[in-house]
Amino acid sequence: LREANTALSASLSQALSHFYHNAEVWAAFSQEVRSRAEGLNALRDFLSTPAGFLRSLARTMVRGSMAPFVPDLPTPPAVTEPDITIPPPVVSEQPEPPALTDAMIAESSIPLPSAQADHTSALQPVTLRSPRHKVLFVAGEPESPGVQYRCIRNAAACLRAGHEARWKPCADVNPDDLSWADIIILWRVEFSGHVDILLQLARKNGADIIFDTDDITFLPHLARFDIIDGIRSIGATEQRIETVFTEIRRTLMRSDLCIAPTDTLAGLMRINKPLTYTVPNTFDADSLRRSRMAMRKKQWMGSDGLVRIGYATGSRTHQRDFARVAGILAKLMLERADLRLVLFREPGNHRPVLLMNEFPELTPVSDQIEWRDMVPLPDLPEETARFDISIAPLETGSLFCNAKSELKFFEAALAGVPSIASPTAPFRQCIVDGVSGFLADTPEEWETALRTLLENPDLRRRMADAAYHGSLWYFGPQRQALVFDSILEGLGGEQAAARASELQIARGAYRGKGLPDVPPHEILFHQDRMDEAAVTVIITSYNYEAFILEALESVRAQTIELLDLVVVDDGSSDDSIALIAAWMTQHSARFNRLILLKTTVNAGLGGARNCGVTHAETPFFLPLDADNRLLPDACASLLAATNEMTAYAYPILEQFGEPTRHKVLGDKPYHPMQLVAGNYIDAMALVAKWAWAAAGGYYVSRSAMGWEDYDLWCSFAELGLQGTHVPEILAEYRVHRTSMTSSVTEQDAHKQRVVELVESRHGWIKLVQKAAKEREKVS
């Protein structure tokens, strides 16, 4: 039997190879027939449309002779039958299966159907599909930087969401890849005979086909010099680009649904494919890490006395875009000898990316232009961090430019650089004008924005911080994983589509809850050893000189080796600052980064915490009130319980100090719907910075202080961000009469304001305890 099966398998493999060969031959023939048919249609349109004929005649007079192409019908290929031998079946002697006994039926894990009435036989069985998918990203331009944004990082997002994913150049995709994948995402793939076979085999295997592109590359009628200036500047012809767009459009039309990096692009796709999602370009953990380290090094080294305006274009497709600002830049550079314009050139031949002969106004200031060699995408953060201001001019009236993504904005933000951008639709969605960047359209607006940032270094820093906070969630890997998960799960049939659609509709744009409110503050102590810790402890203190040293010592005793510490004094009137500064000087060797901040005016608990988080340069932070203490394993144990998708991890707290009825806090397991009745998680939790940014930070309200942590957990629940419980006692909560909870939060009038604020921000909570609590006493 084994020998017969081996022979049969070999024969079937031979037949399958033969059939694949025939399929390739006929697919090529089919493509040729379609091409000839399209040629005939084009010729018919050419001859029947006077305007088209006259335009072509005019081009002929300028460029030379013209001979219309008249296609003929290709000869069908010959197809041969495979020469295979099917061996006769071998029937082996098999024992009769044992009869099922009642006991065996009862023990079976598969339920048997009960007797049904005849009318139930018309019901269709429910088809179950694996909840996890296998996703193949196919790159049409595998050598371009776009493959990082649309294939590699998106494949990582699918993996992060629990699916299997891989990517391949289109030319390398083979039948094994197509038999493995149940979802195929085609990025910038031009239709061809190879792609036709790819699609046929994918559909035969039941795969869903998703089309993706990051520019308007699927509307052939837009392939004109007057619409896309880049066609001219890269030396292409309208006809060539129109052909490319036509083939990409053919791929789009053969897909089941689409994804696009901007809402504008998605809207154009929906004209032909109503099922289209916006899936933005994103950064990854490595680009974030390198960007923030480059920013820290620049801050530590200090200014060299120059101010740099950077234009980080990587292709010769932005001549008309840059022309909008060239004259203004030249004017400012003539006025300021310290001003530098950073532009890029090709390495080796040093050919500028911009065609500089089109900008004669820059000739008088050519010695103030810094030319930098283009670098691979992974090395871009170090180049971007050299800028003081990043510019992203675009033709705002161009549909093509309005579909472009926000790359220049969020990559500059990660490196601590503020941006001025043209008010295209994507930039208007991600930039809060005057807060996280400037939007400028007219020459006057560009000049005003540039002068404002050039003259105000502190504004540049604050604007860059806001841009960074606004980018961490929407352009981050965690949101991308959640977005892909909902899209992929919606492809599992009608019931799955209904559930996924409910979630997507409830999420809306899923852009987070606004920018964190960071009050004005100053830095009193700053140390940075340029290492990369995973956790920052943030201590907030207000007139706690009696307790602050205990809190600091509990942080110094942490078993985690590499640790950052930020202390925020919220306008204390006692000797807290002197104590903290002296302690930091004495124990600076223990910490990687060590920072002491002081708010300009008393900002309240939420404002002070937001100041501290702004200066945290680690994936996680742990807030610690100055009257509480951490146990030595707190940071290490909480960090060990997290992964890339963890928004926060909370431990059990042991109460100490004055007598209390409850010995521990935070002993309940994680379930976000427990928050409906009230808070059960203390502020002493390890929180992901990206999650804090997604929630808009801690709320800031001195008149309603006290529930900042509860509000944050509720915001996480609304965004679908996961928490985790670490059932270990890892911190100590001090009970005393002068604590903020006792002296402020649980006072009648104040408690009423706190409840009203949090209920107005989270309408789904149904608080069990609204009145101020009486002070607990041990009987």
In words, what does this structure look like?
With 779 residues, the chain is an alpha/beta fold. The chain folds into four domains: 1-90; 134-278, Rossmann fold (3-Layer(aba) Sandwich); 285-475, 3-Layer(aba) Sandwich (Rossmann fold); 521-761, Spore Coat Polysaccharide Biosynthesis Protein SpsA, Chain A (Alpha-Beta Complex), CATH 3.90.550. The strands form three sheets. Strands 13, 14, 15, 16, 17, 18, 19, 20, 21 and 22 form a ten-stranded mixed sheet that branches. Strand 11, helix 15 (425-430) and strand 12 form a beta-alpha-beta unit. Helix 20 packs parallel to helix 21 (576-587). The chain is globular, with a radius of gyration of 32 Å. The model is unreliable at 49-54, 56-70 and 89-130 (pLDDT under 50).
